Amino acid sequence: MRHDAVEVQGLNKTFGTHRALRDVSLSVRCGEMVALLGASGSGKSTLLRHLSGLQRADAGPGGIVTVLGQPVQMGGRLAPDVRRTRAQVAMVFQQFNLVDRLPVMTNVLAGALHRMPAWRWAMGRFTDDELQRAQAALGCVGMAACAWQRASTLSGGQQQRAAISRALVQGAELILADEPIASLDPESSRRVMSLLAELNRELGVTVMVSLHQVDYAFAFCPRTIALRAGEVVYDGPTKLLDAARLRELYGTQTDELMPTGHAAVEPTVNAMPPMLQAA
């Protein structure tokens, strides 16, 4: 039975008196790469955290979130087996979420925690197969030579690529990337977005990536869902979001979304290791 990667119906979230999400409804088909566009405070991060069950929606009717055909939450209550669904969903955060004192290899193998006892990961007891898979994932993101460095020695761009290789090891069917390039320089940003696009194209992984720069959406994401003040104000082909349409949607916030003057963003292509293609 076929299902969408993401289905949301009537999602609302309030923090105190602030309405962070307002009756959000959307669906994303399996295999899509979708930009979640919006200025700061538009609700992008809040929405992604609801999709993975890291936050609960407001109680009441609606608030239905289904991921990969499995319920995540409804009416402010998490599904009883939400952890099983999370094992198929990888979150890539702006803050990288690596353990600085541990080797890159150990951080990457955290993606396999749903398949191994936590004590074995904590003690660094990995099988040859697990190590080979992690090495292949690091090779895919151009980080093989850094496998046994402490995570704290990596640059921001390298840390984000390590986080993506962790998603590869996890074998995630859906990647939710929350502002993954917000703190990176243009070259690192292009490389990280190219890696996400490569996972989508070569492995069929569904990718939702929140952005506040429309040029990266144009370069990598055929579809854009735009948020403003917690509401979906556009959902359609990215190519139709010209400057006039953006100003119509965002008014004075448009400048935050427009290109920053660096060279045009161009995707890069990397070879996907056979071990990961078969996963």
How is the biggest beta sheet arranged?
A: 6 strands, mixed
Helicity, in percent?
Answer: 25-40%
CATH superfamily: P-loop containing nucleotide triphosphate hydrolases
- Radius of gyration over all CA atoms, rounded: 19 Å
The stretches of 5 or more residues where confidence is low (pLDDT under 50) are: none
Structural class: alpha/beta
The oligomerization state is: single chain
Number of domains: 1
> Strand share of the residues?
15-25%
What is the approximate shape? globular
**The CATH topology:** Rossmann fold
Biggest sheet strand order reads: 7-8-9-3-10-11
User: What is the correct CATH architecture?
Assistant: 3-Layer(aba) Sandwich
End-to-end gap = 21 Å
Structure description:
- The protein has one domain (6-98, 156-271): Rossmann fold, CATH 3.40.50.
- The chain contains eleven helices and eleven strands.
- It has helices spanning 44-51, 82-86, 104-109, 118-122, 128-140, 156-170, 186-203, 214-220, 243-250, 254-257, 274-277, and strands at 6-15, 18-28, 33-37, 64-67, 70-74, 77-78, 89-93, 174-178, 206-211, 223-228, 231-237.
- The strands form two sheets. It has a six-stranded mixed β-sheet with strand order 7-8-9-3-10-11, sandwiched between helices.
- β5 (70-74) and β6 form a beta hairpin.
- α5 packs across α6 (156-170) and α6 (156-170) runs parallel beside α7.
- The longest helix has 18 residues, at 186-203.
- The chain starts with 5 loop residues before the first strand and ends with a helix.
